[in-house]
Amino acid sequence: MSKKSIYFNILIKQKLETLKEYLYLLKQNKLTFVALIIILFLAIIAIIAPIIAPFPSHIYGDVNPQDKLLAPSRVYFLGTDEMGRDLFSRVLYGTRISLLGSLIAVGTGLLIGVPLGLMAGFYGGFIDEFIMRIVDMFLSFPPLLLAMAIAAFLGPSLQNAILALIIAWWPWYTRLIRGQVVSIKEREFVRAAHAIGTPSWQIMLKHILPNCISPIIVQASMDLGGIILTLAALSFLGLGAQAPTPEWGLIINTSRTYFLKAWWYSTFPGMAIFITVLSFNLLGDGLREVLDPKTKKY
Amino acid sequence: MSNYFEIKDLKVSFKTSEGVKNVLNINKLNLYKGETLGIVGESGAGKSVLAASILRILPSPPAFIESGKIIFKGQDLLLLKEKEIQKIRGKEISMIFQDPMSTLNPVFTVGQQIMNVVRHNRHSNKEDAEKDALRMIKLVKLPDAKNTLHKYPHELSGGQRQRIIIAIALSCGAELLIADEPTRNVDVTIQAGILKLIDELRKELGISVLFIANNVNLIFIVSDRVAVLYRGKIIEVGTSQELRVEPIHPYTRRLLGIVPPTERKIKNLIEVNLKEGIKVDSSVCPFFYKCEKRIEICKKNSPTLTKVSNTHLVNCHRVIDREVDNESTSISH
Amino acid sequence: MNQPALAIKNLKKYFPVYSGFPSRVRDWIKAVDGVTLNIKKGETLGVVGESGCGKSTLVNTILRLEEPTSGEVILEGKNVFCLNKKEMSQLRKKIQIVFQDPFWSLNPRWLIKDIVGEPLYVHLNLSLGELLSKVEKLLEMVGIPKTALYKYPHEFSGGERQRIAIARTLALEPNFVILDEPTSSIDIFSQTQILELLKKLKEEFNLTYILISHDLSVVKSMADKISIMYLGKVVEYGPAEEVFKNPTHPYTNALFKAIPNAGTKDINSIIALEGDVPSAINIPSGCRFHTRCPVALEICHKKEPPVVKLSKEHEAVCFLLEKSKKGESLL
Which positions in chain C touch B217 (Cβ < 8 Å)? Predict the structure, then answer.
């Protein structure tokens, strides 16, 4: 066997080992494990929503006035809204919107925030000052106001709400990672890399980043929940998703008028938000426990 | 003279994710009134655990005292309730640590810190406490005592801070001072001053000292008697003179720089036993894996401290068999 | 050719202390304040000094991990500080460093093969197979088995990690290796092994070492020449044997007498120095050691002492020694 194949074999074996270890640790914390299962379940729903929804046409358009505001039944599992649309199908599809939306928001936030934080922490001096002052500036905008401003400029929509959240969120990652980088870059293995002649970008990416990724992972998983909540809130206020998008917050907003008549209308989307956000929070907490003792080992 | 301070069958262990790890296993250790007993060992040998166990300040969990007795002036310290041991801390037994900066509170002046301790332990009023503080600062030979009282820790140098720590430790009349590597983080030229100070104070105040360090030459010049700690066990104990002139245990000899000629053999041994640190197998001599003089019986059971003279004891099978420096058959691995 | 392999000429490194708003430079920390040293090929220079003497900064500056304030470092005929990025990258292959802390000098999240292979990866264009072979050979040189390639640093003891660090250091076949307290943080068994290994490698590859250590027994066993540093300057320099036998500078004398060794009889044999090391911001006038020197003269307060040659290669920076040459009594 060539050295290369030996190498790959061992590498794959090791990755599997690490995966097994992580799963084992996660399993130890039962709540986290349940949270993880729920999230996976939600992810699957998000992907197959249009397929399993009993009334796919109700998701966006079709109005069905004769079946309006019906209580949950065998036909309409969660009841209908004031347009006669199946609430179950809409809430199901809302999963896709919320999860996708938060993934995009958090993902983009990380894409912007992490490199900036890396550079600020690594280079220090003027670059650090410059980036951090911008971070301070952005952190002073309450997400709500930001969303309102963008809505005023570009018109309210789900996309613009996500945009507002990206702008409001990325600075947190920059700040978080910069602190880590500043302490890690003093470590001797970084000095060793400098002494070897490793180019700075390689040091940042391969040496420093892997060592400060844990808090980011924890924060990001909790943020996935947080963004969903904030998106829902923005939609609730009319600044985000617009009718007929079946976004959970928007559904709750419309349900307000029928609150006393149709309890199911606001309850189920509300529960959906609750379960989703709670799961992400628990996952984040569990990950923190998993990742921290592991870091202690090092 | 005997039973002033005695440790008997002390077993301390840690609960880790990999099981229970025994870190200290001391059969018998005496400290006589008025002497300086030195404990020498490398990092991880259990020195700080020993010191912390005496004053019951081990972090537990994960540490816990499995069994044993620590008898001080007739009382078993391990049986005392928290309130009772509080009375001993600072007043009868005191401790100083390695890092003077983290032991001192940066927010209070050093004078206040001495006074706080005095007022807490002696219930004195402010004026008396201040007088005591002044007296202590002079006792540790810090110049310009009156002004030093009002200085903050960061305004003092490392050596000065360490002196303040000593002042605090002795401010309430403690008669046993535990010094846990007090000069480790201090420059060598300053270290000499601190060591001399401790020695002078010992004579002046008539206290006993338990001095812990990882440098054997240091231990010899400050201690009357020395106990060598290896992986939680005392492997040799005797007067400074005895250990310096006639070190018997291979580990003690190693610490003194006496390196066996068969160095290469040991290299291979260490590689084979990569994970040996996890559980200490009590049926094997703790030094087995690194010993160049081991024989068959060393693998089967752990030796006990054997007398070589009235004051000199060694934990080694070859002493028991009276084959101290012969070329007996060493088993290869 | 009697040109030194590494020449340090009047090297200075000052760190600015900012204060006020907007930030202005208020003071300078004179970490290295004019160090001149010459190291011959194949020599081991021991650098001894307490904390704050500038030895870490000296090392960082020689490696150009810090830009100097002034002075030159001539390595194989070239001034290190005049090289551009590309040339500097080439030069880095020639001079490497082994750090004190075997725990943190290896990236805990990297496999050993990546850690030791990094210099090869950065500088050479080897195929994966070639790289792996080279890494295996390097580990073999330091006595680490091949199976280590796919393990992580935390799976090894301190002594083994230090050996892995040495393997990494040798990857690019340097001529100079700086050893920054290589044995301070490891157990006593590994210490002997590491020193033996370093000696063996030095002979095999004709290396030149700069050894920083506060452990005099280590310095004694390895160094050909030693230089004693105090507050950013070299106060004594000479062949190790000579300096140990006859420490001439009052600081060297005090330093050696303060460290307990096998021969120290009792506590009265160690010497304590009065006062503390002055801050590097407010360096004392004249001879920087005069504030703590037990034999300081009037002139030591006022003027900086000259370099006095005591023998062909032994020199010290002290007024007293100058006087002694004129026949007056010393210490």
Answer: 260-262, 264
Enumerate neighbours of C (3 or more CB pairs within 8 A).
A, B
B235 in any annotated domain: no
CATH code of A224's domain: 1.10.3720.10
What one-character-per-residue DSSP string does A75-121 give? Answer: SSTT-B-TT--BHHHHHHHHHHHHHHHHHHHHHHHHHHHHHHHHHHH
What distance, in Å, lies between the first and last C-alpha atoms of chain B?
Answer: 46
Three-state secondary structure call for residue A241: coil
> Chains touching chain A at 3 or more Cβ pairs under 8 angstroms?
C
- Residue A112's domain comprises 89-240+268-297
> Are B28 and B305 contacting, i.e. CB atoms less than 8 angstroms apart?
yes
Residue A97 is assigned to a structural domain of this protein:
yes
Segment B224-239 mean pLDDT = 92
In this complex, which of C104, C118, C129 lies closest to A188 when CB atoms are compared?
Answer: C104
In a domain, B164, yes or no: yes
**What is the span of the domain harbouring residue B18?**
5-229
Interface test with C, best of A4, A183, A184, A189 (most C CBs within 10 A): A189
CATH number for region C6-94+174-325: 3.40.50.300
Using CA coordinates, name the residue in chain B closest to C257: B189
The two three-digit tokens of residue C57, written as one number: 């900064």
A260 in a structural domain: no
C153: closest CA among C167, C140, C172?
C167
Contact C155 B274 (CB under 8 A): yes
Host H or E run for residue C218: helix C216-222
pLDDT attached to residue B275 = 40
List C-alpha distances in Å: C99 to A195, A282, C213: 11, 41, 11
Question: How many distinct structural domains can be found in chain A?
Answer: 1
Tell the burial category of A98 from Cβ atoms under 10 Å away from its Cβ (0-12, 13-18, 19+).
buried
The C-alpha of C113 sits at a distance from chain B's nearest C-alpha, in angstroms, of 18
pTM: predicted TM-score of the whole model, two decimal places: 0.84
Closest to B134 (Cα-Cα) out of B144, B146, B143, B125: B146
Query: Is residue C119 within 8 angstroms of chain A, CB to CB?
Result: yes
Q: Which amino acid is at C150?
A: Y
C46 touches C226 (CB < 8 A): yes
Rounded-to-integer distance, Cα C150 and Cα A12, Å: 11
pLDDT in tens, A211-226: 888 889 999 999 999 9
The answer to the question of residue A48 being in a domain is no
CB contact under 8 A, C119 and A196: yes
- Report the candidate in A48, A76, A58, A35 with the shortest Cα–Cα distance to residue A224: A35
In angstroms, the CA B137 to CA B152 distance is: 14
Is residue B313 domain-resident? no
Nearest to A204 by CA among A120, A290, A139, A81: A120
| Domain annotation covers residue A164 | yes
Number of domains in chain B: 1
Choose from C189, C199, C256, C274 for mutation: most chain B CBs within 10 A: C189
Determine, yes or no, domain membership for B271: no
How many other C-beta atoms are found inside a 10 Å radius of the C-beta of residue A194?
Answer: 20
Q: What is the CA radius of gyration of chain B?
A: 21
User: Which residues does chain C have within 8 Å of residue A297's beta carbon, measured at their own beta carbons?
Assistant: 154
State the ipTM, two decimals. 0.83
Q: pLDDT tens, A8-63?
A: 787 788 788 878 877 777 677 788 888 889 999 999 988 888 888 887 777 777 67
Residue C154's closest chain A neighbor by CA? A298
Q: Using CA atoms, how far apart are residues B312 and B320, in angstroms rounded to an integer?
A: 13
Q: Which of B193, B199, B257 sits opposite C262 (nearest CB)?
A: B257
